[in-house]
Amino acid sequence: MKVYKYRGGTKEVIERDLESLVSNYFWAPTADQLNDPAEAYVNELLIKTTLHGLSSISDITEVNAAFDTVLRMRHTIGVYSLSRTPLDELMWAYYASSHTGFCIEYDLERLKLEARAGWSVIDVSYQKEPQIIQFEDISTHEEISPILGKMIGTKSQRWSHEKEIRIITTNSGKNHYAPPALTGIYFGCRCTDDFITQVRKRLSGRNISYYKVECSPDSYAVRAKPIEYNKEVDGIPETYLASINECYIPELQHTADRHKKYHSYLEKAVEIVSRDPSCDKVEAVDFSGSKIENGKPVIYVTYETNVPTQFDKCLNRYLSLDEIEKAIKDLEIAAQLASS
C-alpha cells in the first residue's frame, strides 16, 4: 500500500526535509506538537466520574496510574501523519506551500518492516464528537491500544478529506527506515525545473519514480504526470550485494513434496533480499509453514538489517511468488538501465 506525506515551507525547512530523504528517516512529532489543537482530545468526563465513584469503595490506584500513563503518552509518543492520496487540492495548498513543495510516496509495508515492534499503524476515523473513554478501555497491563486508538486515531469530520493513516512510534523524533521504502516524489504545480532537478540529483541512484502535478483541463482536480528517467539527472541505479550464509538454501530432497516445484523460487528470493540496501547478510531462506497467498506458498528470508531499529537486528522478510517474479523483473530492468 502506498501512503503520502506533503511537504513544503521555507528554504531551511525544505533543505531539512531533503536531508531526511537522503538519510532515510522521518521525524515524528508528539501529538501536542501537531497543527490541530484538538489532537488527542477525548471526552474524559464519563471515565473521571466513574473512577471517582469507584475510589470511594475500592482501591483503584493501579487503574488511575494506567489511565494517567496513557494520557501522558500524547507528550511522548511520535505521530507521523500520512495520507492515502497524493492528489488532494487542499493539502497541496496548505501542507506543500501552495504547490511549491512536494509529496513523498512510501511503501507502507516496507516503511514499517524494520521497526514493526516499535511502531503501530492507525487508520484515522472522522467523527462529529470526541471519543468517549469508557472504563473498559483502561488496562493495567501493556495493552493500551483502546485509549490510544481513540486519542490518536480520531479527528473532527472537517479533516476527513485528508484520508489519514498514522504511524505511531514508541518515541518521538527521528525514525529510520530502509531506503526502498521511499518509492516516489510528486512535485507541485509551481515547482521550478531547477528545484525538481536539484531533488532528483540529491536522490540519484535510488529507484524512485517522479511525477509533476498539474491542473486538469476540464475540472478543479489535479493529476500527476510521470517524469521520464534521465540518466544524467537520476544517475545509474545503485547496486548492492550482501553476504550470504553458505548453507542458506534447503536442498531439494529436504523440501516438502508440495513445495518442490517451487524450489527455484528460494534462490530468487535470496537474490532479491541480498540486493536490498538494508541487508547486511542473508542468514536463511525457506517456505513459510503458516502463510500462503493465492493458493501458493510464501517464502521467508532471514537477514541482518543495517537500518537503525527498535527491533532485533535479524528480521524475516516474507515474499509471495508473485512478488518474487515482479522483483526479479525490476532487478533486470535496473541492470539494463545501468548498462545502457
Structure description:
There is one protein chain. The protein is an alpha+beta fold and 340 residues long. It folds into two domains: 2-179, no CATH class; 243-339, no CATH class. The chain has ten helices and 16 strands. The strands form five sheets. A five-stranded mixed β-sheet has the order 1-4-10-11-12. A four-stranded mixed β-sheet has the order 13-14-15-16. Helix 9 crosses helix 10. The longest helix is centred in the C-terminal third of the chain and has 19 residues, at 321-339. It starts with a strand and ends with a helix. The mean pLDDT is 88.
Q: End-to-end distance, in Å?
A: 31 Å
Report the biggest beta sheet as strand number plus sense, adding barrel if it closes: 5 strands, mixed
Question: Which structural class matches the secondary elements?
Answer: alpha+beta
Order of helices and strands: EHEHHEHEHEEHEEEEHEEHEHEEEH
Give me the Rg, rounded: 23 Å
Number of domains: 2
Binned strand content: 25-35%
Note poorly predicted spans.
none
Order of strands across the widest beta sheet?
A: 1-4-10-11-12
How many distinct helices? 10
Number of strands: 16
User: Overall pLDDT, averaged?
Assistant: 88
Shape: globular
What is the helix fraction of residues, given as a range?
A: 25-40%
Label this structure with key terms.
10 helices, 2 domains, four-stranded mixed β-sheet, 340 residues
Q: What's this entry about, in short?
A:
The protein is of the alpha+beta class and 340 residues long.
Fold topology:
Blueprint: E1 2-7, H1 11-22, E2 25-28, H2 45-55, H3 61-72, E3 78-83, H4 89-94, E4 102-107, H5 108-113, E5 119-123, E6 125-127, H6 145-152, E7 154-156, E8 164-169, E9 173-176, E10 182-187, H7 193-202, E11 209-215, E12 222-226, H8 231-234, E13 243-244, H9 264-274, E14 279-293, E15 296-305, E16 314-320, H10 321-339
Parallel strand pairs: 6-7, 10-11, 13-14
Antiparallel strand pairs: 1-4, 2-9, 3-8, 4-10, 5-8, 11-12, 14-15, 15-16
Helix pairs in contact: 9-10
